């Protein structure tokens, strides 16, 4: 069964908290990784690899650069 | 003493060592004659002939936030902990970033990162390597992170000279301030190399003590039964400042970083030169560079690693250059040998010795070796005289590096 948007958001929040220390509650769909969450490109690579483990969806580098917000990542994972 | 140039003073220090998680706890354990060495229980221990080490008393991952710790090599973690303590201790509220620098090195760099990353690479492929692998393994990583932390733009440098690294860094920092490149420098050394490959490799050189039945007695500089050094980890950092800058902000000055002497043995890649010529040259140059005479020097924190070859010849060199009068201490008997971190913590100890007028002791010397004609501090600490006095921290490293840093009382 496909994960709901809420489940994916919770999973992403957990990953971002683990990697950056940002509280999971601050990771909301409209947030931009760079502008709002201050996440650098190296940390985005870590997040993408962790997301692959968590959701079983690979995010290639050429796709990753287009994922600007949390919502973009949720959309990509949902397919 | 010369007065025609910039004087450099010590206005802060920090340390995280096998004896304590900060400079104060390390220093009190040192004065109490405690050993920071313990038996190792890691699952790899049966693969190496040495079963003990001087592990950092406070694990840096317990002090640092987890997101920060996971992108730092352990040597970087230890350096950052010590640098934060030193920086807070110095209490510098405002400094021109272009006049602030960092000189912090390590002997080996991010060796545990290299080895674990290679395991990840072989088992899971390159995609699973942390994107922080390179900044974790590079030997200038600790200096870089500290530079970002304090906002240093005058220059961030990492000297590498094996076990002389920490002292060389402090010497380089003194010269940076004197030459006008900076007003404030965060300087010292760090190391985190307790790993079976390193233990195996040092054991292959027959450089380490194998006193497995008595780990706390294994580091015994100058004792006839010494059989090698004890591997330790940690970091020691000083904040050095031009006297003018320190006075202008009303800083507490703990000591004067009076000068440094460098030389090289040009003899053997790992064995000390047997006459002590290189060590003597470094100490002579430290005196000249500081405008001191041997009579001014009342205390020497010796390199004294507890290896059979080096300990006695260092005392011969001290007697020749400085005299038989200074109180000579081997603090590695308690801390183990922090390699690139050694010169850092031992400079902190030398500064504290001058500030508190006390020379720490040397433990485990039960049967003094022959040929030692200097005044070793054995057993408990001894009081240093009042008035204007100087002290020297010696550090030597594989590669034939000899460094002597001179400090004077305020």
From TrEMBL, chain A:
User: Record's Pfam families?
Assistant: PP-binding
- What keywords are annotated for this sequence in UniProt? Cytoplasm, Fatty acid biosynthesis, Fatty acid metabolism, Lipid biosynthesis, Lipid metabolism, Phosphopantetheine, Phosphoprotein
GO-annotated molecular function: acyl binding; acyl carrier activity
Q: Positions modified as O-(pantetheine 4'-phosphoryl)serine?
A: 41
Instruction: Please describe the post-translational modifications of this protein.
Output: 4'-phosphopantetheine is transferred from CoA to a specific serine of apo-ACP by AcpS. This modification is essential for activity because fatty acids are bound in thioester linkage to the sulfhydryl of the prosthetic group. 4'-phosphopantetheine is transferred from CoA to a specific serine of apo-ACP by acpS.
Pathway note: Lipid metabolism; fatty acid biosynthesis
InterPro entries linked to this entry: ACP, ACP-like_sf, PP-bd_ACP
Q: Give start and end of each Carrier domain.
A: 6-79
Q: Which PROSITE patterns match?
A: CARRIER
Where it mainly occurs, coarsely classed, is cytoplasm
Q: Which GO terms describe its biological process?
A: lipid A biosynthetic process
Q: Which GO terms describe its cellular component?
A: cytosol; membrane
State where the protein is found. Cytoplasm
Q: Which family does it belong to?
A: Belongs to the acyl carrier protein (ACP) family.
Q: What does this protein do?
A: Carrier of the growing fatty acid chain in fatty acid biosynthesis.
**HAMAP family xrefs:** Acyl_carrier
Please give the name of this protein: Acyl carrier protein
Q: Which organism is it from?
A: Planobispora longispora
UniProtKB/TrEMBL annotation, chain B:
GO CC entries:
cytosol
Active-site residues annotated for this sequence: 163
Q: Which UniProt keywords apply?
A: Acyltransferase, Fatty acid biosynthesis, Fatty acid metabolism, Lipid biosynthesis, Lipid metabolism, Transferase
Report which reactions are catalysed by this protein. a fatty acyl-[ACP] + malonyl-[ACP] + H(+) = a 3-oxoacyl-[ACP] + holo-[ACP] + CO2; (9Z)-hexadecenoyl-[ACP] + malonyl-[ACP] + H(+) = 3-oxo-(11Z)-octadecenoyl-[ACP] + holo-[ACP] + CO2
Q: In which pathway does it act?
A: Lipid metabolism; fatty acid biosynthesis
Example GO biological process term? fatty acid biosynthetic process
Pfam families from the UniProt entry: ketoacyl-synt, Ketoacyl-synt_C
Alphabetical list of CDD domains matching this protein: KAS_I_II (cd00834)
Where in the numbering of this chain does the Ketosynthase family 3 (KS3) domain appear? Answer: 5-409
GO MF annotation terms: 3-oxoacyl-[acyl-carrier-protein] synthase activity
Identify its protein family.
Belongs to the thiolase-like superfamily. Beta-ketoacyl-ACP synthases family.
Task: Give a short account of what the protein does.
Answer: Involved in the type II fatty acid elongation cycle. Catalyzes the elongation of a wide range of acyl-ACP by the addition of two carbons from malonyl-ACP to an acyl acceptor. Can efficiently catalyze the conversion of palmitoleoyl-ACP (cis-hexadec-9-enoyl-ACP) to cis-vaccenoyl-ACP (cis-octadec-11-enoyl-ACP), an essential step in the thermal regulation of fatty acid composition.
Name of the protein in its database record: 3-oxoacyl-[acyl-carrier-protein] synthase 2
Species the sequence originates in: Planobispora longispora
Q: What is the lineage of its organism?
A: Bacteria, Bacillati, Actinomycetota, Actinomycetes, Streptosporangiales
């Amino acid at each position: 069964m496909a994960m709901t948007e809420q489940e994916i958001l919770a999973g992403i929040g957990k990953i971002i908290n683990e990697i950056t220390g940002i509280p999971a509650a601050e990771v909301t769909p409209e947030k931009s990784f760079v502008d709002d969450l201050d996440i650098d490109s190296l940390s985005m690579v870590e997040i993408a690899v962790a997301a692959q483990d968590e959701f079983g969806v690979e995010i290639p580098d050429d796709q990753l650069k287009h994922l600007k917000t949390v919502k973009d990542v949720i959309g990509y994972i949902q397919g | 003493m010369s007065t025609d140039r910039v004087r450099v003073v010590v206005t802060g220090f920090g340390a995280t060592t096998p004896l304590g998680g900060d400079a104060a706890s390390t220093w009190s354990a040192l004065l109490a004659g405690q050993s920071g060495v313990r038996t190792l229980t890691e699952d790899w221990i049966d693969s190496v002939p040495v079963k003990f080490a001087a592990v950092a008393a406070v694990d840096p991952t317990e002090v640092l936030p987890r997101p920060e710790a996971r992108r730092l090599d352990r040597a970087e973690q230890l350096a950052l902990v010590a640098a934060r303590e030193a920086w807070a201790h110095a209490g510098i509220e405002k400094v021109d970033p272009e006049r602030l620098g960092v000189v912090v090195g390590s002997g080996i760099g991010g060796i545990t990162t290299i080895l674990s990353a290679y395991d990840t690479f072989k088992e899971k492929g390159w995609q699973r390597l942390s994107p922080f692998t390179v900044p974790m393994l590079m030997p200038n990583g600790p200096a870089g992170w500290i530079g970002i932390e304090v906002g240093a733009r005058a220059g961030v440098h990492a000297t590498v000279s094996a076990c002389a690294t920490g002292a060389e860094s402090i010497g380089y920092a003194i010269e940076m301030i004197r030459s006008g490149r900076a007003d404030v420098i965060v300087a010292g050394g760090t190391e985190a190399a307790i790993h079976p490959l390193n233990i195996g490799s040092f054991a292959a050189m027959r450089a380490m003590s194998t006193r497995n039945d008595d780990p706390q007695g294994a580091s015994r500089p100058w004792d006839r039964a010494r059989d090698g050094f004890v591997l330790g980890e940690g970091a020691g950092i000083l904040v050095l400042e031009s006297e003018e800058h320190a006075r202008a902000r009303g800083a507490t000055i703990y000591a004067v970083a009076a000068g440094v002497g460098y030389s090289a043995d040009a003899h053997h890649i790992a064995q000390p030169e047997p006459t002590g010529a290189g060590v003597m040259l470094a100490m002579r140059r430290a005196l000249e560079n500081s405008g001191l005479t041997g009579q001014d020097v009342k205390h020497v924190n010796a390199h004294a690693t507890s290896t059979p070859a080096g300990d006695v010849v260092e005392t011969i060199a001290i007697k020749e250059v400085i005299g038989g009068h200074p109180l000579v201490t081997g603090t590695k008997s308690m801390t183990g040998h922090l390699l690139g971190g050694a010169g850092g913590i031992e400079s902190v100890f030398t500064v504290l010795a001058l500030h508190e007028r006390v020379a720490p002791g040397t433990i485990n010397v039960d049967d003094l070796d022959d040929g030692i004609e200097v005044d070793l501090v054995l057993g408990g600490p001894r009081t240093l005289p009042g008035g204007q006095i100087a002290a020297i921290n010696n550090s030597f490293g594989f590669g034939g590096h000899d460094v002597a840093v001179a400090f004077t009382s305020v």
